[in-house]
Design goal:
By secondary structure, this protein is α+β, with helices and mostly antiparallel strands. Helix 3 packs across helix 7, helix 4 packs across helix 7 and helix 5 packs antiparallel against helix 6. It has a four-stranded mixed beta sheet. The chain has nine helices and four strands; from the N terminus they run ααααααααββαββ.
């Protein structure tokens, strides 16, 4: 069986991750390289493991998380769908089981807020892990004159935590935000659609989604 560790050390996969991030850098987007995809992979795995899913399912969602943004090498538009097709070709060439490939590419193809739907537990966990990766280190430029709203919001986040409560009924994204760098309205302007998708993803896993900023519950 193909493992997450194999995918992490796969030269082809890592080449596409680097190239995809370089393309997004040229377009002025925040970091989508190894820090992001590893965070997403590990966080998605944590979600399904905490909710009691089988070890192999956890392994598959980590693979999906690591590969989820390779489609950006083609174009930012519809990158989830193009990434799913690219992942299919890579995994098929590795002779992965078709049923496992189907689960992975379905999750990748449904992770973007524009067209994504939490069609499975893998897709739901990937959505939550991806949309909750908000942090200062995703900002590329230190020259604030060139920052857009995405840079301001990411840089304003001093701490980000995604946690499931002990009774496994609520998943909460807790953000500690420096209001001198960005406002709550800035956050909602670019993240409201993502947070609504997170709510649907949480529901797919039998959870309620909550967003807390500086100790105040907003969703």
């Amino acid at each position: 069986m193909i493992t997450y560790e194999e995918i992490k050390h796969n030269e082809t996969v890592n080449t596409y991750i680097k190239a995809a991030d370089a393309a997004l850098c040229a377009l002025g987007y925040t970091e989508h390289s190894f820090a992001h995809v590893t965070t997403v992979a590990e966080r998605a795995g944590m979600i399904l493991a905490t909710m009691g899913h089988p070890e192999r399912t956890v392994e598959l969602v980590k693979i999906a998380g690591y590969m989820h943004d390779i489609g950006n090498v083609i174009n930012r538009t519809d990158h989830s769908q193009s990434g799913a097709v690219m992942a299919f070709r890579i995994l098929d060439n590795m002779h992965m089981d078709p049923l496992e490939i189907a689960q992975i590419i379905s999750a990748i193809g449904n992770h973007d807020e524009g067209t994504g739907v939490p069609v499975s537990p893998l897709a739901a966990a990937l959505i939550l892990a991806d949309k909750s990766d908000v942090r200062q280190t995703r900002v590329r430029m230190m020259n604030t004159d060139g920052w857009d709203i995405h840079d301001r919001v990411n840089y304003s986040v001093k701490k980000s935590e995604l946690k499931i409560n002990d009774s496994h009924t609520v998943i909460t994204l807790k953000l500690t935000v420096n209001m001198r760098m960005g406002s709550i309205m800035d956050f909602f302007e670019i993240f409201m659609e993502r947070m609504m998708l997170c709510r649907r993803a949480a529901s797919k896993l039998g959870l309620q989604f909550r967003l807390m900023i500086n100790g105040q519950q907003l969703i």
